[in-house]
Amino acid sequence: MKAAVITFPGSNCDRDLSVALAQAGADVTRVWHKDEALPAGTDLVAVPGGFSFGDYLRCGAIAAHSPIANAIRAHGAKGGYVLGICNGFQVLTELGLLPGALMRNSGLKFVCREVALQVATAASPFTSGFAAGEVIRVPVAHHDGNYQIDAEGLTALKAEDRVAFTYAPGINGAVEDIAGVLSSNRRVLGMMPHPERAAEPAHGGTDGAKLFAALVQELAKV
């Protein structure tokens, strides 16, 4: 499985994400935001956490207009796999690949700690390594992780089983404590928590490694 990990000015989790994917068995290529095309044969585009372009305007808004943005959007639109973590989730909403928006945390404070996540669905390439309802522990580090979506959009997410993870309990005011959502074809995942920071024993936990292992295994079947 070939993965392309995007780096923007201000990304700070791109290497961690690359290492987590490589340890799971992916062939990883690093891609700079000024590139206009993805490497040939890319299966997965991974958009990392950080503070792209200093989070000016809106988190992810400037990154969504980088030269590489059109290639990411096109990859997702044609059915390619895309993973956005933290700032990457924000970028994917700005690109229109996922619904909703990430707002300032309730309480207006940066949240940086390990949290409990409940796996809302196991029916996706990203979550198939978990059991629905399973509680895992993964770090978060965000100031704008308060996921919001209108009532119609929320109804669609729930009806189509597209909520991937929820906080247990809530930490940032997100509607129904949503921590991650899937696209309608289930090939795009955006999540605020950082599984790449819980991918090996030295991190203090390995629950995040299951996501990358399941994803690589699922894509190997395609």
Protein described:
The chain contains 5 helices and 11 strands; from the N terminus they run βαββαβαββββαβββα. By secondary structure, the chain is an alpha/beta fold. It starts with a strand and ends with a helix. The model has no long low-confidence stretch (mean pLDDT 97).
**How would a crystallographer describe the biggest sheet?**
9 strands, mixed
**Percentage of residues assigned to helices:** 10-25%
Instruction: Output the helix-strand order.
Output: EHEEHEHEEEEHEEEH
What best-fitting shape do the alpha-carbon axes yield?
A: globular
Radius of gyration: 15 Å
**Uncertain stretches of 5 or more adjacent residues:** none
Number of strands: 11
State the distance separating the first and last CA atoms: 9 Å
What is the residue-mean pLDDT, rounded to a whole number?
97
Pathway: Purine metabolism; IMP biosynthesis via de novo pathway; 5-amino-1-(5-phospho-D-ribosyl)imidazole from N(2)-formyl-N(1)-(5-phospho-D-ribosyl)glycinamide: step 1/2
Main location: cytoplasm
Keywords: ATP-binding, Cytoplasm, Glutamine amidotransferase, Hydrolase, Ligase, Nucleotide-binding, Purine biosynthesis
EC number: 6.3.5.3, 3.5.1.2
List descriptors.
alpha/beta, 222 residues, 23% helix, globular
In short:
It is built from 5 helices and 11 strands; from the N terminus they run βαββαβαββββαβββα. The protein is α/β, with parallel strands linked by helices.
Note the topology.
Elements lengths: L1 E6 L6 H10 L3 E6 L11 E4 L21 H9 L3 E5 L1 H8 L6 E3 L7 E9 L15 E8 L3 E3 L2 H9 L3 E5 L10 E5 L5 E4 L15 H15 L1
Protein name: Phosphoribosylformylglycinamidine synthase subunit PurQ
Keywords: ATP-binding, Cytoplasm, Glutamine amidotransferase, Hydrolase, Ligase, Nucleotide-binding, Purine biosynthesis
Subunit structure: Part of the FGAM synthase complex composed of 1 PurL, 1 PurQ and 2 PurS subunits.
